[in-house]
């Protein structure tokens, strides 16, 4: 299985990442991509930018751990996670998750699983810059609830 994990300051090219994952592969029947984009507001208040900070080795290890869990749960053929750090302005891409499988359901579900864990377990910290100053963003209970649903063992579909 092809796996890519990258933490970077630079923007990424979704089409190039998908092409790199699928190039020369005829076993892949489904590719799902999710791109998180910096919004112009945080909880309804306008922002000028957000800054993402992280511990590089710790963040990469945590992402790798969740990729391995996704691989154990679903029949995946490839995964890519690219997460940016540094100062980002509204409209810029923040995170990319690409999952590939023979069939769509595994690719969709694995992408959702990975995003839920990136939002709650990956060691990134978000500071919001408003026109009045900066503040650190607290974790959201709704994100924890979304991640908690994966705590139960996966149910395999019986046909």
Features:
four-stranded antiparallel β-sheet, single chain, Aldehyde Oxidoreductase, domain 3, 36% strand, four-stranded mixed β-sheet
Care to describe what's here?
The protein is an alpha+beta fold. It has one domain (2-148): Molybdopterin biosynthesis MoaE subunit (Aldehyde Oxidoreductase, domain 3, Alpha-Beta Complex), CATH 3.90.1170. Helices cover 33% and strands 36% of the residues. The chain is built from four helices and ten strands; from the N terminus they run βαββββαβββαββα. It has a four-stranded mixed β-sheet, sandwiched between helices. The protein has a four-stranded antiparallel β-sheet with strand order 7-5-9-10. The longest helix is centred in the middle third of the chain and has 18 residues, at 56-73. It is globular, with a radius of gyration of 16 Å. The two termini are 25 Å apart. The mean pLDDT is 90.
Which helices and strands, and how do they pair?
Elements: E1 2-8, H1 14-22, E2 30-37, E3 41-42, E4 45-46, E5 49-54, H2 56-73, E6 76-84, E7 86-88, E8 93-101, H3 104-120, E9 124-130, E10 133-136, H4 141-148
Parallel strand pairs: 1-6
Antiparallel strand pairs: 2-8, 3-4, 5-7, 5-9, 6-8, 9-10
Return residue spans where pLDDT drops below 50 for at least 5 consecutive residues.
Answer: none
Cα radius of gyration in angstroms: 16 Å
Helix content: 25-40%
* Terminal Cα span: 25 Å
Under CATH at level 1, the class stands as Alpha Beta
Global shape? globular
Q: What name is given to the CATH topology? A: Aldehyde Oxidoreductase, domain 3
Q: Structural class per helix/strand content?
A: alpha+beta
